[in-house]
Amino acid sequence: MKKWYQKLHWQILIGLVLGLIWGLVASVAGFTSFTVDYVKPIGTIFINLLKLIAVPLVLASLIVGVTSLNDMAKLSRMGGKTVAIYVVTTICAITIGLTVVNLIQPGDFLPEATQQELMSSYQQNIEGSSQSAKEVMDRSPLAFLVNIVPQNFFSSASDNGNMLQVVFVAILLGIGIIQIPKEKGEPLIAFFDSLNDVIIKIVDFVMLIAPYGVFALMAGVIVDLAGDDLGRALDLLGALGWYSLAVIIGLLLHVLIVYSSLFRLFSNMKFSDFFKAIRPAVLVGFSTSSSSATLPVTMERMEKNGGVDEEVSSFVLPIGATINMDGTSLYQAVAAVFISQALGLDLSIAQQITIVLTATLASIGTAGVPGAGIIMLVIVLQAIEVPVQGIALILGVDRILDMCRTAVNITGDAAVSVAVAHTEGLLGEMHLEDEE
After folding, report:
1. Cα–Cα distance list, 403 to 64, 129, 192, 320, 408 (Å)
2. Hey, is 172 helix, strand or coil?
3. Domains (ranges, CATH) in the chain?
4. What predicted TM-score, i.e. pTM, was given to this entire model?
5. Relative to the CA of 413, which of 190, 251, 270, 402 has its CA 20 to 30 Å away?
6. Who's near 118: CB < 8 A, 6+ residues apart?
7. pLDDT tens, 285-316?
8. Whether 257 contacts 344, CB under 8 Å
9. E strand or H helix that includes residue 2
């Protein structure tokens, strides 16, 4: 049995802690330039490696899954379950966020002087998000469906933000392969099956450098936040402490209430065993703040350790990484009410219901847009007639909270894959020897 420090999740956790310490020391001792020039790029390389294998992994594994399924009714049923569960968990997340923020009232703890300082400091960062939000809102109601079908697959495959298009093409190819004579389709199936095995092996290689990549990413986050003035960063965190606390409490409640209920209803897997299987993916997602970049790790952990069949993981997880944003949606609700409170605006019940509906739709409509979290928030604020300039109040701590909500997004994707696999009879035995 491996010693505790030889286990991947502990190595990644140690990397996170050491990265945090390095970032703090660098800010105090004036090593920020060195960290940005020589440490942070290691983290960027790690993220790029994960993004590099995401598209081929989804393409190969989904084609293999569809061809082995050989049942269109089963495929459509699995798709319906996936989308339905994602929508329900998103609505639950937003509702929990609204409940927590209304109970804590974090906007009442923000001093007026701090409010004015934040508004002036981050005002220039809002214009780009407002323009992107306007573009999203100007789209036709069916734009989301139109965007799923690509004009050029190679163009779609060049951008991880177009993962739903890759999923669509993979399903189309898989259906096409099973419709031609078996002897003609077998060489293609064998090719994609071998490609899938190769990419899974590459994921194992990439994870060998995960602790170093996570260290570099965490150090970069702290340096970006604090710069050469750690005191100012601590003051900012203190001023927005109640808001940050409300977001984190909401995220924890969502995981403990909604996901645990999901397991009790749709799975016989222990919730604790699930977390043992998914720990490395959650930690990588926390450090990268990207569900898409973490997708190869999530798929590998759920197939290898979680017992989720490849047919399910290759279908449910890519869709989840694109449209399932439970953590982000909960953050929208807390942020919208916090901004309203800080600006002295009282939201009616109707406006808070509008937040639920708008945030649910926005979580799907802006899935492929960079910086989706802030863009979604602009759309929500405009829907309830709250000045979008209020976003400046939360931008200072957004990067840290983004790490937390991404970890919850990834946990949600994996939890839904377990639920769908169980209902389809495709949930096998867990393999947690390496995680114990």
Report:
1. 32, 19, 34, 17, 9
2. helix
3. 4-435 (1.10.3860.10)
4. 0.86
5. 190
6. 239, 392, 393, 395, 396
7. 998 888 888 999 999 999 988 999 888 888 89
8. no
9. none
